[in-house]
Amino acid sequence: MTNLNQSIPGLSAERARIPPFAFVLTTCIGVIGSNSLALGPIAPEVARSLGADVPAVMTASGAFGLGTAASAVFLGRLIDRHGPRRMLAAALILLAAGLGGSAAAPALPLLVAFQLIVGIAAGVALPSIYTLASIIAPAGRESETIGLVLTGWTLSMVAGVPLSAAIADFAGWRTVYIVVATATLVACAAVRFVAGTEDAVTDDSGGRQVGGVRATSPLAALGVRGVAPLLSACAVFMAAFYGVYAYIGDHLHAALGLPVSANGLVAVSYGFGFGGAAFLDRLIDRFGAGRLLPLIFLAVAGVYVAMAAASGSYVAILAVVFLWGLANHFGLNVLIMRLTALDAARRGAIMGLNSGVTYLALFAGTIGFGAAYAGSGFFMLPLAAAGLMLAAALFAARAPR
């Protein structure tokens, strides 16, 4: 098998084919996202079944997030030692086990414990996926390949969330986890057997090393030039997203008087925007990721300002949310491109730090924006997010190109 991250003689970047293994990685993102987004819609049914209230049930989601963050930071470095494909396959097996345990959990504490296990698995799987995406990408089509893989989040949002709610209504909430666990095992088999890439990384001189790379500490990876400003940009970027997304549904219900089902169209609109951006990813390769990232973050800031202006109209919010998904896709895509290009021999550790920062930002953004929402209402949240995106643009501008 070949490493398609190298130039292909006699074949232009436009004609170089994105390998089918990228679709396997897209599916892996989809099953991880389906778990992370599934609990919210089915929480009332879970609460009724386990004799708890919805806030208590949602502690399982918090356990998933904390497990993902800790695992990504402290175990992500093992990807560089054992290879991303091998680590992804192992993580998916653990993920399926945790999902199976979640389906069988007889009490809430056990559901929380199994979701913590799922989070630990996701914390290894996500940086492995992003690392593999950067390795298999044909030269000149890096952003398109990564963008294709990122559409797995769209699959989980547009298809996974509605299907989870429907399955819970029809067959019970435990069936949701059984279905996702089965899909995870299928994805694991595909990772193991579909031709894609060797468990290889590239050293600083451009040579390839297959496994056996010394596992660097998270702090060592943090010392790579450019990692700190880009991770700082990631932190504020994700805090802005999760802080606004967490409360937009309640705003529609409490302030605009819409039914809870109206939240579904918000998720679908965002998902279509996020997924639709994949068709424009080749523009990133054409203009260069380094110079585009600060501009993309400024564009995201503009979207948040528009969201604040549109906060009184459901139709206007849906239109802005579509643009939100579009802009966030570009931001996440280019951010991953920049991070994976900093040190090829430490991609796993760096992407582990990225995933850890992302899920810590989820926690901080949800808590911090929650206090602002309680005190000032939704209108102030997009404006605060716009301010964070200005900081993200400054951090991105400081990173070496």
Automatic annotation (TrEMBL):
InterPro entries: MFS, MFS_dom, MFS_Efflux_Transporters, MFS_trans_sf. It holds the Pfam family MFS_1. The chain crosses the membrane at residues 21-42, 54-75, 87-105, 111-133, 145-168, 174-195, 227-248, 260-280, 292-310, 316-336, 348-372, 378-397. Residues 21-401 form the Major facilitator superfamily (MFS) profile domain. Its main location: membrane. The keyword Nucleotide-binding does not apply. It is found in: Cell membrane. The keyword Transmembrane helix applies. Keywords: Cell membrane, Membrane, Transmembrane, Transmembrane helix. It is a multi-pass membrane protein. This is MFS transporter.
